[in-house]
Amino acid sequence: MKSILTAFALTAGMVSAAFTSQAQNGPKVAGKVVRAGEQPVEFATITLLKAGDSSLVKGAIADINGKYEFEQIKQGRYLIAAAAVGMNKAYSKPFELGAAGVTVPALSMEAASKSLKAVDVTARKPFIEQKNDRMVVNVESSITAAGGTAMEVLEKSPTINVDKDGNISMKGKGGVVIMIDGKPTNMTSQDVAELLKSMPASNLEQIELIANPSAKYDAAGNAGIINLKLKKNKNYGTNGNLNLGVSQGERSRANGGLNLNHRNEKVNIFGSYNYNHRDQNQWLGLYRTMTNEGHYQVFDQQTSTDQKSDYQAGKLGVDYFISKNHTLGVMADLSRRDRLMPSEAVTMMGNGSRLDSVLHTNTEENARWDRGAYNLNYRGILDSTGKELNVDLDYARMTQKVNASILAFTRDGADKALLNSDTSRNGQPSSIDIKSAKIDYAHPLKGGAKLEAGAKISFVTTDNDARFDSLRTGNWIKDERRSNHFIYKENINAAYINFNKQFKKIYVQVGLRGEQTHINGNSTFTKDQQMQVIKNDSSYFNLFPSAAVNYQLNKNNTLGLTYSRRIQRPDYEELNPFEFYLDRYTKITGNPGLKPQYSNAFEVTHTFKSFLTTSLAYTHTKDMMTKILEAAVDQASGDTTAIRYRYQNVARADVFNLNISAPVPVTKWWTSFTTVSLTYNMYETVIDKNNVKLSSVGFFGRTQQTFTLTKDLSAEAVFFYVSPQVADEGLFKMKAMYGLDLGVQQKVLKGKGSVKLGVTDVFRTSYFRGYFENLGRTTSVSNTWDSRQVRLSFNYRFGNNNVKAARNRQTGLEAEQNRVKGGN
């Protein structure tokens, strides 16, 4: 605890010093950026340049009123450059800065339709941008992300943490909703993790972190929304992007991708193809101790897994511009993942001083996962006031086939004489069909206010037929105890209304969403030669209010307050009572009695000069869902030494989080972005009829240092540290984790291409260790993987540079994402 507070104090001191430095008096440069109608351009990127050679002096971000300010500037001759997404860059006339300072005349920015060539300035977006209701991570600005995966970029994002199983948390809270281009991934956290580990980072343009979404978004998710925005060209003519990457650790990996876009006045056609090959090792250690019928027992399990996977994804879309104000679009998104995953597990059993027996479990697994998502959409601007109508029709189908063979045999304590053996196999075909339709309407009001309303209906059907066979006297016999057929149907009807308005210094947003849910689940299996059916039928209705207020105290300080109520429904397969055995003594099961969890989240933020962002958040969660280790009984032998790993509803969870983020310009050639987070969490639950209360204080810190060595050469170093704390997933008491990434980038081909070389987890310290205790049973976990990689990547942009903004479409499948399980 002392080390945590010391680290926090040191970081706070550094941030405070930067704060003091920024606040000193001296010659100032101030101004404002506006668009047509004298409306401010919120959060534009502003750069102060030397008039003589256009070299960069300082950077800043305009506030919500479009105002900016530079302090402590040496006297001399300068000019201002302003940039914002979807708008042409704007440049001021050169001016002379004296001791009295300068107020630059308002810069007027236009919607991006022409390229400006008057001033040749090479700049890149800041790694982090703070928007009105979200934080934006510009992926292309990270060198160490090159050649890596989307998951590894996400791990480097502020307020984000990824645990040993790929579960993603934001500001200390699990239940994050993952979106891609505003569309759902339609997968559970395990499948999302596999997808993001397969997706090349070069596919990403931005990551949007939305802590408390408005009522316009589905109420699903406990911790907010992460929206991954893929690259999509925005130009007239034909253009594209090519990326290639290789990496080498203990095993090799490779990825490649091509994005193409063709656009004219009537049609925009866009498409992409991406391929990723991963070959990696993973090692899992489970050390369990318990007292069973008066006897002390120890289980020491070591599992080695070799995983080879090939991921392919293709996307094709067409936007047809019926007229200036009406657009019809269609999109198809197809992907496939093939995976081979052999594993070997050795479990040594005894009393701690004597080894009684050794269990060997060898598994050969192969799986194929296919996903197809299709969208038909319409966007219309109904009149000159800006009334807007959006309609989306969506259909998605996911199929997965998993086949595995399992050979288990037990030998004596010397690991020589065979005591018994068992051979089994299983097939788990599954399919999920999702249909949805939604309509959104925006109605501008007087004084810059806006009223939004919409409705959505969705239908989900999932069919999972798991069959297990055991080899008996040379014949395969169906294992009725472990086979299960699970069919789940769900219908959600939703509607919302949302209002927002920008007053002089106050931005206000309030909304209310209502969702009605009908579910029907049937799990069919055989017990004692009798067909058994477990039903899970229910219906419920909920209201989900949300609110946000931003108040600009003065030109340097902005306060924000947000609130939202959220729901996280169980993953479809988490409701299935089917049991999956890791070995004879360890199994994973579903829970047909699992209920949704509800959370109320509050957050206060303070922004100083669009430079230093501080947030204090509190979330109370009722019936929180998390995986818990508990005692289990083998149905055939009655053995009570087994453990079961399944989701349960934790009675209560409270999480407090303090987060500080700041970009600090150390020198002209050295910039730093640091984020630190202090979290206090409390959990209460009942396990094996025993009340369990856990709490911890945790520290998380990440710093990114970027060095501009020459005009075309730059370098980057990223370091993170996670202190010991209670992990959100599984309530494990985890030990500290930390890691260092290094990278360099060289621009080539007249700036259109780049070559990046990086090393991840240089000292190979990024691995998970933790333990869980209950009723005299202790389970320790150690999980390591091939995390140290040397990566080389090449990226090339080609085509017409006549910029023209393109649409970024959000479809209607958000609520169903993160809830599709694929037999993991």
Q: Which helices and strands, and how do they pair?
A:
Blueprint: H1 2-23, E1 29-34, E2 45-50, E3 56-61, E4 67-70, E5 76-83, E6 90-91, E7 95-97, E8 102-103, E9 107-108, E10 128-130, E11 135-138, H2 150-155, E12 160-162, E13 168-170, E14 177-180, E15 183-184, H3 189-198, E16 204-210, E17 225-230, E18 237-248, E19 252-263, E20 267-292, E21 295-323, E22 326-340, E23 343-350, E24 355-381, E25 388-412, E26 418-427, E27 430-444, E28 450-472, E29 475-478, E30 484-502, E31 506-527, E32 530-552, E33 557-568, E34 579-583, E35 586-589, E36 597-608, E37 612-632, E38 642-665, E39 670-687, E40 690-708, E41 713-722, E42 725-726, E43 733-734, E44 737-748, E45 753-760, E46 768-774, E47 777-785, E48 789-799
Parallel strand pairs: 1-8, 1-9, 14-17, 35-38
Antiparallel strand pairs: 1-4, 2-3, 2-5, 5-6, 5-7, 10-11, 11-16, 12-13, 14-15, 16-17, 18-19, 18-48, 19-20, 20-21, 20-47, 21-22, 21-23, 22-24, 23-24, 24-25, 25-26, 25-27, 26-28, 27-28, 28-29, 28-30, 30-31, 31-32, 32-33, 33-36, 34-35, 36-37, 37-38, 38-39, 39-40, 40-41, 41-44, 42-43, 43-46, 44-45, ...
How would you describe what is shown here?
This protein is mainly beta. It is about 5% helix and about 65% strand. The strands form five sheets. It has a 31-stranded mixed sheet that branches. A hairpin with a 3-residue loop joins strand 36 (about 595-610) and strand 37. The protein is globular and about 90 Å long. It starts with a helix and ends in a 25-residue tail after the last strand. Residues about 1-25, about 115-125, about 800-810 and about 815-820 have low confidence and may be disordered.
